[in-house]
């Protein structure tokens, strides 16, 4: 369908549109007009992605003299694929209705591991070894050597790509990772480098958060993005955590041991070069005297992760004299490693600010702040000079240099915490030194500064006023949309009591109570006998899940559950979890029915949809609070309180409830879908907890459903499922329309728009 | 009857199979020529020499079948000394050892076995078989032709649907303790062994490699459960120590490398919308030591002994996978060795178009179903104006072949009737459900009453109980006789009606044979009627009448057809019929 939003003609690939999608587009359009940032919350299952994509592409079409580039950031690769698939649909629609004018180039970008087509490289186990084996074939010096000696292996795909030179371009179209690989194979060009090259010219780029937020990656991938870009962070409810992780480093014993090995290896290399090619080292020295700025003109393939500090924080000055010579630099690193080793030998938990830590390094190891700051770039330069291709072998020393650079660069928003062991396992010594970032706004700041519009959107951004404070920005539009439902297709319930009428909770003191465990088991068992197809359960942590599943096994509940449905479980092994999910879907497809046990804050909760029959019921066992005894969390809470005046309790509840909302929100994907959500913990019935849930869940949470026991919940579930099985009128029938046709949109007044917002 | 291939010997042997009590043959591969030795009951034996072993095999199989069959028949006759021949007696010409049945139909030994099995399981069928086939009223093939479905169906279910695994199979293997000592007993059934093989390919492989060359089966399982015990104690260190000492034990303790490889392969075919493995390659957080290491949300793993630490959760996932794959082999579970081998074979399969399917799935997933017009499914709406019509036609269809017998069916045995009415009510519900969301019970009751009026009428006449009451009130012998008669009548009628129109002389002969048999039953029914006490006569009469009616109808038809035939084609030679 085609309609007008103010001066923009929007091409939408479906015959109908939800009113909230329309309202969403209107707000988004206003934000684009104002060239400012915006924050939009719209419930899951209302088609955020397609609304966003069609508005932004249509916006560019309507204003050809002012094209905007769309940088779409997703949390995971499979979301990237989903987004690109939706864009493909939209693109097909737009090109058939407008013609060639609507042609765009959209690429997805991922790591070498997901894009490489060279079978020799792909044989490597993990991402880092794929990167390294790619480098082994494509680094500039390898290729130079191979030109002289044809027996040396190179990557034929990269050579072909290089040969094609500027002709190596992607024709317009939408390319998923799969398509890129297929295209690369067909042409014989390396898809990874092709995609990285095309990123600059593409109208739409879809990639992971890290490519913008993590300075190490953003430094060499997103550097050339123009200011006239719209950056979208989808599923952004966890964006603050991503930002924090991007700037945090931890050092363990293994790291230090590895770093020592790396240093020895490098010393040998230096000795070798001294004997054979002393000129190289001298050339490097001279270059360093002139200043570092060498990254810009490096060959494409020699790029590594960039400096972990943010681009604006890197001083534009020459490398300090005391680390210009390679062997001197190695000495400095050796002293640093030794110092860190000494710090790890502690029996008490220590907490320090970066300033104090740097001062103590200076006194004990004789390394000043400026030297620390340049560690990372100096290491880079050295590794290039030494022509090291096995980058995966040298990860440990890179970690140490990351740490040094970060600690030397920032004076606030960080703290260094040394723990001799994990509190939960005090008998196992495992000292760790963590540099943890507390301020999410640090990592995202350059993004807000550089790009004209940044859109942060998700199904759960409540309370919506907290995000601007956490991320320290000023949105021009900040809206939360409701969901216009044709029928009550979601049914949230708060279950406070088990079948024996005793309260259930995962509160610390009740957690291991056998009665609670049994009540949870009975709840699942009863539900499994009533609910068809798929059920998803979320637990508060892996260890809790492990414990409860084992005790269900012991007292026979698990066996009873398995008489109704198959059981699949998320484990820490990603491959296994993926296969378990695949089998779970198979079981739902074939009608056997299955239950998936998963963990809040886990990978499954973050990115996997349990829509339609894949999830008719989701049970959230407990409130997924963070581990409140964690030293890092405490430090962060303290920082938030001091800097942003956010109370500890408020933040913890907010964080727990957004995770819970995220978990239960996975069950619904469109209005034709339906699902139940059970919050199984007595604490959910308290107003201060419950009110932090997003509005679209709260509005369906009836007062009668706030204090249920298992038998009542079972009754409600039966009723609900029976009601949902009936046919209904999709357009919403009388009263409010929930599905708009083109006509409806044309004669729509602003009145409806306001209705959609809170 | 064996005819020697050698034209010079004129002798011809004709021995009835029932006289043969056993047979021996030379083994293939031995130096002896292919010989078959048939020993006779009266002593003495025949030795046949064959040209090659293939012929011998064929012949031996045939003889074996014939022997079991005649033995079976003898049993069925239970002491009956009647001369056995009929369908079982088989004529074999051995001029190149080709085996033929009298009706020129080659029946595979498998089918033969199936028939024998069916006969043995179903005494009713056996009776019928005895009566008609052995009584020369129907031939063997005729008898079975009407039961093709029974045969086919049996084969069909065998190959198509296997019993799957139980969802909770890993929990079934529970040890038993005797309470006093520390001894633990595991009860292993072939089924459990098979489940273990399916769940754990490494154990399976170890079994193939080690049993019985390196260790006995018992040792193997002892070791296996020792390993399981170590797992259950969750003591990874102890497990590691034991594994270091005992190489075979280590197999069970380590992670299953076969599974790991399979996982790596399967991950490539996984739905991209849930491929979390791809993220791992993309997410730069996975650089070691980057990101927040210990904030309480991440778990601690003991990396050193990780390979000995298999969790219950992993087992659960694996079990789910195996259950979904279903049973892949179809062998008897008696011998673990054969099970293991069969399983190994079934593991070798591959699929190609998985990739395309993967792509299709993602494009289907992305569409928002309710924003666009629904996809057109090729189905026509079912609209039934008058349910009555629909059921009547359905009824006709189902009871078409037993039309003649359907009357008596109502009164005596109601399986067909029940099926019909059940079917009717199911389609009723379907129909009503489509035209009207709620099935009104009164409508259903009305329809049911209408359909079962016949039953209800007898029911009301007799008072409380339905037709079973009548039968039960009869003396046992009478009841059985009646039932037996009506089954025979049904069978005969089925053959009778299915032979019309008569197009070949063969059919004609069959019809007259059947008719003769039926006319023999007719007076027998009369006898029963007479023999019962007077108070029950009325009811027996009611039961017998429909049988008579059905028979009468058949006779009438036969007469009419005969007349027509003779009137029309009187000039045809008698040999035609």
From TrEMBL, chain A:
Catalytic activity line of the entry: ATP + H2O = ADP + phosphate + H(+)
Enzyme class: isomerase
UniProt KW Iron keyword: yes
Domain of life from the UniProt record: Eukaryota
Pfam families according to UniProt: DEAD_2, HBB, Helicase_C_2
GO CC aspect terms: nucleus
Cofactor(s) needed for function: [4Fe-4S] cluster
InterPro entries according to UniProt: ATP-dep_Helicase_C, DinG/Rad3-like, DNA/RNA_helicase_DEAH_CS, HBB, Helic_SF1/SF2_ATP-bd_DinG/Rad3, Helicase-like_DEXD_c2, P-loop_NTPase, RAD3-like_helicase_DEAD
Subcellular location: Nucleus
Family to which this protein belongs: Belongs to the helicase family. RAD3/XPD subfamily.
Name of protein: DNA 5'-3' helicase
TrEMBL record, chain B:
Highest rank taxon of the organism: Eukaryota
Region (Disordered): 72-97
Gene3D superfamilies named in the record: 6.10.140.1200
GO cellular component: transcription factor TFIIH core complex
One Gene Ontology term from the biological process aspect of the record: nucleotide-excision repair
Pfam families per the UniProt record, alphabetical: BSD
The protein's name: BSD domain-containing protein
Originating species: Quercus rubra (Northern red oak)
């Amino acid at each position: 369908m085609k309609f007008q939003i103010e001066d923009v003609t929007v091409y939408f690939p479906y015959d109908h549109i939800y009113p909230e999608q329309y309202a969403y587009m209107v707000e988004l359009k206003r934000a684009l007009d104002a060239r400012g940032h915006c924050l939009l919350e719209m419930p899951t299952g209302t088609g955020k992605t397609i609304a966003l994509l069609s508005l932004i592409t249509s916006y560019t079409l309507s204003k050809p003299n002012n094209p905007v580039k769309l940088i779409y950031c997703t949390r995971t690769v499979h979301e990237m694929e989903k987004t690109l698939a939706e864009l493909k649909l939209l693109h097909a629609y737009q090109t058939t209705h407008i013609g060639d004018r609507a042609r765009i180039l959209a690429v997805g970008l991922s790591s070498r591991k997901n894009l490489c087509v060279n079978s020799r490289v792909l044989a490597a186990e993990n991402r880092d070894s794929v990167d390294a084996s790619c480098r082994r074939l494509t680094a500039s010096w390898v290729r130079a050597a191979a030109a002289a000696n044809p027996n040396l292996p190179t990557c034929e795909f990269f050579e072909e790509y290089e040969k094609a030179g500027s002709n190596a371009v992607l024709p317009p179209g939408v390319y998923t990772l799969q398509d890129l690989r297929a295209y690369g194979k067909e042409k014989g060009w390396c898809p990874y480098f092709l995609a990285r090259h095309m990123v600059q010219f593409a109208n739409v780029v879809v990639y992971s958060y890290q490519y913008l937020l993590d300075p190490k990656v953003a430094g060499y991938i997103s550097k050339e993005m123009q200011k006239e870009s719209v950056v979208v962070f989808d599923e952004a409810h966890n964006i603050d955590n991503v930002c924090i992780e991007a700037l945090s480093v931890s050092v363990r014993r293994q790291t230090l041991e590895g770093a020592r090995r790396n240093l020895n290896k490098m010393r040998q290399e230096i000795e070798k070069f001294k004997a054979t090619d002393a000129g190289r080292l001298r050339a490097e020295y001279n270059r360093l005297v002139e200043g570092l700025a060498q990254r810009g003109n490096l060959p494409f393939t020699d790029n590594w992760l960039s400096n972990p500090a943010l681009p604006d924080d890197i001083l534009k000055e020459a490398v300090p004299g005391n680390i210009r010579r390679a062997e001197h630099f190695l000495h400095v690193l050796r002293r640093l490693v030794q110092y860190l080793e000494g710090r790890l030998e502690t029996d008490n938990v220590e907490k320090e600010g970066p300033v104090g830590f740097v001062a103590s390094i200076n006194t004990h190891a004789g390394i000043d702040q400026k030297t620390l700051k340049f560690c990372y770039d100096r290491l880079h330069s050295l590794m290039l000079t030494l022509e090291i291709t096995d980058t995966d072998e040298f990860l440990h020393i890179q970690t140490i240099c990351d740490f040094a650079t970060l600690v030397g660069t920032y004076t606030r928003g960080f703290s260094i915490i040394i723990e001799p062991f994990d509190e939960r396992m005090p008998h196992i010594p495992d000292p760790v030194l963590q540099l943890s970032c507390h301020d999410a706004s640090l990592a995202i700041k350059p993004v807000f500064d550089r790009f004209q519009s940044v859109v942060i959107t998700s199904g759960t951004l409540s309370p919506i006023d907290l995000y601007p404070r956490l991320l320290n920005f000023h949105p021009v539009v900040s809206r939360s949309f409701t969901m216009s439902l044709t029928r009550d297709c979601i049914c949230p319930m708060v279950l406070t009591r088990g079948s024996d009428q005793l309260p259930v909770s995962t509160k610390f003191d009740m957690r291991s109570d056998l009665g609670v465990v049994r009540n949870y088991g009975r709840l699942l068992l009863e539900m499994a006998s009533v609910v068809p197809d798929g059920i998803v359960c979320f637990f508060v942590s892996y260890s809790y899940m492990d414990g409860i599943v084992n005790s269900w096994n012991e007292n026979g509940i698990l066996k009873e559950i398995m008489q109704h449905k198959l059981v699949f479980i998320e484990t820490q092994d990603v491959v296994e979890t993926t296969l378990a999910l695949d089998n779970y879907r198979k079981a739902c497809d074939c009608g056997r029915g299955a239950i998936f046990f998963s963990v809040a804050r886990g990978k499954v909760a973050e990115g996997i949809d349990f829509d339609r029959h894949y999830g008719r019921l989701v049970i959230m066992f407990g409130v997924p609070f963070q581990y409140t005894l964690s030293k890092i969390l405490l430090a962060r809470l303290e920082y938030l309180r001091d800097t942003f005046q956010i109370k500890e309790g408020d933040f913890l509840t907010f964080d727990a409830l957004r995770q819970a909302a995220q978990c239960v929100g996975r069950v619904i994907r469109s209005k034709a879908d339906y699902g139940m959500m059970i919050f199984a913990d007595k604490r959910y019935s308290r107003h201060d907890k419950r009110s932090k849930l997003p509005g679209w869940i709260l509005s369906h949470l009836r007062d009668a459903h706030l204090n249920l026991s298992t038998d009542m919940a079972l009754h409600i579930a039966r009723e609900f499922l029976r009601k949902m099985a009936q046919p209904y009128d999709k357009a919403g029938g009388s009263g409010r329309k929930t599905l708009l046709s083109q006509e409806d949109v044309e004669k729509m007044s602003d009145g409806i728009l306001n209705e959609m917002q809170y | 009857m064996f005819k020697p291939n050698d034209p010079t010997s004129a002798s011809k042997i004709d021995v009835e199979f029932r006289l043969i009590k056993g047979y021996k043959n030379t083994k293939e591969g031995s130096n002896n020529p292919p010989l078959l030795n048939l020993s006779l009951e009266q002593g003495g034996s025949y030795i046949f020499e064959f040209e090659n072993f293939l012929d011998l095999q064929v012949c031996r199989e045939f003889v074996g079948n014939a022997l079991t069959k005649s033995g079976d028949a003898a049993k069925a006759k239970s002491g009956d000394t009647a001369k056995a021949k009929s369908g079982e007696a088989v004529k074999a010409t051995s001029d190149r050892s080709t085996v033929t049945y009298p009706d020129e139909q080659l029946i595979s030994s498998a089918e033969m076995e199936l028939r024998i099995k069916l006969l043995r399981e179903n005494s009713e069928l056996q009776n019928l078989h005895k009566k008609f086939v052995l009584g020369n009223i129907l031939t063997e093939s005729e008898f079975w032709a009407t039961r093709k479905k029974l045969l086919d169906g049996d084969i069909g279910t065998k190959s198509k649907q296997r019993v799957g695994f139980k969802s909770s199979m890993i929990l079934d293997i529970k040890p038993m303790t005797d309470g006093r000592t520390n001894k633990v007993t595991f009860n292993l059934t072939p089924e459990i062994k098979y489940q273990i093989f399916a769940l754990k390919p490494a154990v399976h492989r170890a079994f193939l490699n080690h049993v019985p060359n390196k260790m006995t089966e018992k040792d193997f399982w002892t070791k296996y459960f020792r390993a399981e015990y170590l797992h259950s104690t969750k003591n990874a260190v102890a497990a590691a120590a034991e594994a270091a000492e005992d190489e075979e034990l280590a197999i069970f303790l380590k992670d299953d490398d076969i599974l790991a490889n399979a996982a790596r392969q399967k991950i490539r075919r996984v739905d991209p919308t849930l491929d979390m493995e791809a993220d791992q390659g993309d997410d730069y957080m996975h650089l070691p030591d980057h990101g927040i290491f210990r904030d309480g949300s991440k778990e601690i793993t003991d990396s050193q002994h990780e390979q000995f630490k298999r969790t219950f959760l992993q087992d659960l996932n694996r079990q789910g996978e195996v259950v979904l794959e279903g049973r892949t082999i179809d062998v008897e579970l008696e011998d673990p060795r054969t099970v293991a081998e069969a399983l190994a074979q079934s593991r070798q399969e591959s699929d190609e178009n998985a990739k395309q399917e993967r792509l299709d799935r993602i494009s289907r997933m992305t569409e928002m179903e309710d924003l666009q017009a629904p996809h057109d499914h090729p189905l026509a709406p079912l609209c039934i104006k008058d349910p009555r019509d629909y059921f009547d036609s359905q009824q006709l269809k189902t009871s078409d072949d037993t039309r003649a017998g359907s009357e008596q069916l109502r009164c005596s045995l109601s399986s067909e009737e029940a099926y019909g009415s059940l079917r009717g009510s199911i389609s009723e519900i379907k129909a009503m459900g489509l035209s009207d969301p709620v099935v009104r019970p009164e409508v259903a009751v009305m329809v049911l009453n209408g359909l079962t009026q016949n039953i209800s009428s007898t029911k009301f006449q007799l008072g409380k109980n339905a037709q079973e009451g009548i039968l039960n009130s009869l003396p046992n012998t009478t009841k059985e006789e009646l039932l037996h008669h009506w089954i025979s009548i049904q069978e005969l009628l089925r053959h009778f009606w299915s032979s019309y129109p008569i197009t070949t002389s063969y059919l004609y002969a069959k019809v007259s044979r059947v008719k003769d048999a039926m006319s023999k039953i007719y007076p027998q029914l009369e006898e029963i009627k007479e023999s019962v006490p007077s108070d029950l006569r009325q009811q027996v009469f009611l039961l017998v009448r429909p049988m008579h009616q059905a028979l009468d109808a058949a006779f009438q038809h036969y007469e009419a057809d005969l007349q027509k035939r003779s009137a029309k084609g009187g000039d045809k030679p008698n040999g035609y019929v």
